[in-house]
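In response to reviewer comment 3 from the previous cycle, which asked for concrete evidence that the modeling workflow produces usable outputs, we include below a single protein chain processed end to end. The sequence was submitted unchanged, and the resulting structure tokens are shown without manual editing.
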Amino acid sequence: MVGVTVSVLRGRGSTHNESGVGLVSDSAEVTQVTNFRKDKEEINKSIENFMYRGAFLGYDKETPDLTKMTENVTIYYYDEQNDNDKETNHNGTDSGYMGLPVVLNFTATSKFLKCSGTQTDVTLRVEECDKEDLKDIYHGTELMSYLFYMKAKASTERTFESARFKGWFVHTVSPDKVNATQTQAPDDTLCFLIRSI
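The workflow returned the following structure tokens.
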């Protein structure tokens, strides 16, 4: 392996068991690796659709939807384990605040909202996952599919962008349907309201 460097990556506050080993060629660009650690949670929330008031985020089997019945949602908030709260583009320029890293759980279940697929074809799903597995989420792992960046569009409106598939958002299709859509210009179809139950 000529021209290859072995580097050990360790997030701030990590132990020797949480290190990662990476191979970097002489010509490769070194980028910051972000890992996430669960910080706190808010239970008994509902996520109301901004466009269709009275329609709440819910699910039917593995398909997320909008329902007239309020679904209890637990929002898990995560701390980013890196040097700053901003994303850096591949060219090193600051692209701005991404939002709060969160995981959305349907309270009292092991069902979570998740984006899966490829960067060009993302599906929004509801899947079961062991809550213990989501305590720490490491960059580049399948668990990144459960992580969303929640960002305020206005004082009460929130958008949810996939952390694994940048540029893909939870999107309102109709009064009873949500999916993932790719956009660079967020509009009201991406907005939701967090309500206390």
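Residues 1-30 form one domain. We consider this sufficient to address the reviewer's concern, and the full set will be provided in the supplementary archive.
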